[in-house]
Design goal:
alpha/beta; 5-stranded parallel sheet; 27 helices; 40% helix; OB fold (Dihydrolipoamide Acetyltransferase, E2P); Rossmann fold; 5-stranded mixed barrel; mini-chromosome maintenance (MCM) complex, chain A, domain 1
Length: 706
């Protein structure tokens, strides 16, 4: 830099430049602060507006990034020097006013923060993982010595600093007392943010950053919120056991918080991508292509893949005028024999979804799934709230494997998250409601490890009816030997392995005649028809832009199917389907229309989802004893046949009972067997009544109702 240029830089009057910018762009906001102080005490400046304000704006914007604290002081000086506040007590207000900047164009990933960014202005994106409660923090401490002299000491983030002696020159007093009433306090809160899961690939550990929030920014963020934090990056020296370390910890002094409103704004879609997406939406084979792009290495399971594609696109969440909401997320449960690639499907869905979290039920607790109250050094030993998997998967898909291995108490925490899509916390004196607007894809094994074809399906699913009824679709994936299908699966698996072996060998020792084209040709059966990166963009685009409306033809088709199933019911027959299933069909139809970016839900969509739902009901709710659909098997755990038998047993015990109400078990069984019930079923049901505490056995062979 030449000497002349240096002189030019010094001559620039920053105060005047700031005053010019503020009076042209932010005069009304400054006047509002003057009128409404202290209730409104933050001047929020848009970085983009500053950048576009001529040459001086670009210079001031650059200076903010490199010397933020200097810029905050200059803005205050400009307001004071040019009397922009127009109040008699303007000096005090300007001192207490917050200068905040939003909308920075460049965002830094937590993992990319480096030492050269210390004391600069940065913008970091992430999910709020933990928050502490809002508490006052001392920023100006006033100390008094025994002689009555006052000493002021500024306090920063971290440790409290006390003066070693009185600040008055002649005074030698060293015993100083803090005067709380004369000291200055500010509201303070600590927030811990974590990198967004969609930015992590290949099982990377998400990195965290602590944020120091003060004044009117406190209490705004809740665990699970997606935020962009703008602020000044600082470091603080580590002290271990009284020994100072050469390593420093970083934290961000928060200047402003922006909340992510737009769905999937982190998925960057260029104009070329948009053209490709729109072209793909017109493809006549779109549904087949999408289903084949989900876990192509897994053979078959077409109906499951089709349902998962609908889940990824989801229905439309609706807010009603009375404040109630109707969920749009679709919940699916896969119950299947071991080795049928359920976990593989779940893993692939997490990879495809713009936001996805994978967890295994075996190692998941209710606190890990919902939210935990934690007491640790982050909150200085106080209770803090930490977001769980379902909160972090907000607006995405949560995949929970091994759901049957979860503890009973932990499973019950899913009820509210699935239906109301919120998580209510009342722990350690913290009462809060967090959002969990996510679709749940669960996988479980049958109760006995494998399916038994001679026992009803509902009896083999080791999950409470209250949880099962919240799933829109339940798929039974039984591993039934079938020679033609088994041969096709074997060929598919071996082909995938053979190509994998070829690629690995070709990498080590190039094979003659093997080139990229040959490998791609061999990989064709296990290559997704739509590239995973494009698939994620397609889902994000559809969720942002497609909000279809149901047509009369689709409405008629759905109503006809619903009423047809309801008409099967009578006092003697079970209830085949409930309004909950109808809502599920509507959500699936919305997702089907969204897939092709349609503005309307047509009859074809209705027919498609009716076929999927009908297949599920036939496997799950079909009662072979009565030959009818019985949704009660899933929603209550008892089929109508079981309920009739329980009532008959109780009536028979009352009829055959002596003066004490005790009846002989064999007489009860004989009487009911004459009415057409099978002896095995009666014995099982009597055992269930005894175990459930509804009856007792005073002596062997006797039964008495409680």
């Amino acid at each position: 830099m030449s000497f002349d240029e240096e002189i030019d830089l010094e001559v620039v009057d920053k105060s005047k430049e700031w005053a010019e910018f503020l009076s042209k762009k932010y005069k009304a906001e400054i006047r509002t602060i003057g009128r409404e102080f202290p209730y409104k005490r933050s001047l929020i400046i848009n970085y983009e507006t500053l950048q576009k304000f001529g040459r001086s704006g670009v210079r001031l914007a650059d200076e903010l990034i490199n010397y933020p604290n200097k810029v905050f002081a200059e803005v205050r000086d400009a307001i004071r020097a040019h009397n922009l506040l127009a109040r008699t007590d303007a000096h005090d207000i300007i001192q207490k006013m917050n200068i905040r900047f939003i909308n920075l164009p460049r965002r830094t990933l937590v993992r990319d923060i480096r030492s050269d960014q210390m004391n600069t202005f940065v913008s970091v994106e992430g999910i709020v993982r933990k928050i502490t409660e809002v508490r006052p923090r001392i920023i100006q401490a006033i100390f008094r010595c025994p002689d009555g002299h006052m000493t002021l000491r500024e306090q920063g983030y971290g440790r409290f600093i006390e003066p070693e002696r009185c600040g008055v020159a002649d005074c030698t007093q060293k015993r100083l007392e803090l005067i709380v009433l004369r000291s200055t306090f500010v509201d303070a809160q600590k927030i811990r943010i974590q990198e967004t899961p969609e930015g992590l690939r290949g099982g990377e550990q998400p990195q965290i950053l602590d944020i120091d929030v003060v004044d009117d920014l406190t209490g705004l963020a809740a665990p699970g919120d997606r935020v962009v934090i703008n602020g000044v990056l600082h470091s603080i020296q580590r002290v271990t056991g009284g020994t100072k370390s050469t390593t420093f910890d970083i934290y961000l002094e928060c200047n402003s918080i922006e909340f992510g409103e737009k769905e999937f704004e982190e998925v960057n879609i260029t104009e070329e991508d948009e053209q490709e997406i729109l072209a793909l939406s017109q493809d006549p084979n779109l549904y087949r292509k999408i289903a084949h792009s989900i876990a192509p290495t897994i053979y078959g399971n077409e109906d499951v893949k089709e349902a998962i594609s609908l889940q990824l696109f989801s229905g439309i969440a609706k807010e009603m005028p009375d404040g109630s909401t109707l969920r749009g997320d679709i919940h699916i449960l896969l119950v299947g024999d071991p080795g049928i690639a359920k976990s593989q499907l779940l893993r692939y869905v997490v990879k495809l979804s713009p936001r996805g979290i994978y967890t295994s039920g075996k190692s998941a607790t209710s606190a890990g799934l919902t939210a935990a109250a934690v007491k640790d050094e982050f909150g200085d030993g106080r209770w803090t709230l930490e977001a769980g998997a379902l909160v972090l998967a907000d607006m995405g898909v949560a995949c929970v494997d091994e759901m049957d291995k979860m503890q009973k108490e932990d499973r019950s925490s899913l009820h509210e998250a699935m239906e109301q899509q919120t998580i209510s916390i009342a722990k350690a004196g913290i009462t809060s409601t967090l959002k969990s607007r996510c679709a749940l894809l669960g996988a479980a094994n049958p109760k006995l490890g494998r399916f038994d074809e001679y026992v009803g399906i509902s009896e083999q699913i080791n999950m409470p009816p209250s949880l099962l009824s919240r799933f829109d679709l339940i798929f039974i994936m039984a591993d039934v030997p079938e020679s033609r299908r088994d041969e096709a699966i074997a060929q598919h698996i071996l082909k995938a392995h053979a190509v994998g072996e070829l690629i690995m060998q070709h990498k080590r020792n190039p094979i003659e005649g093997v080139n990229e084209e040959y490998i791609q040709r061999e990989l064709a059966p296990v290559t997704p028809e739509i590239d995973p990166v494009m698939f994620r963009k397609y889902i994000a685009y559809a969720k942002r832009n497609a909000f279809p409306i149901i047509t009369q033809e689709a409405k008629d088709a759905l109503v006809a199917y619903y009423t047809k199933l309801r008409d099967l019911a009578s006092p003697e027959k079970p209830v085949p389907v409930t309004a909950r299933q109808l809502e599920a069909i509507v959500r699936l139809a919305e997702a089907s229309a969204r897939i092709r970016l349609s503005k309307t839900i047509d009859r074809d969509d209705a027919v498609r989802v009716i076929r999927i739902v009908d297949n599920c009901l036939r496997k799950v709710a079909y009662d072979p004893k009565t030959g009818t659909f019985d949704i009660d098997k899933i929603t209550t755990g008892f089929s109508k046949h079981s309920r009739d038998l329980i009532r008959s047993i109780k009536e028979t015990v009352r009829i055959l009972g002596d003066e004490h109400g005790t009846a002989r078990v064999d007489e009860v069984i004989n009487l009911l067997a004459d009415k057409g019930f099978s002896r095995d079923t009666i014995e099982k049901q009597i055992d269930a009544l005894l175990r459930g505490g509804e009856a007792l056995s005073p002596r062997n062979g006797l039964i008495k109702l409680i």
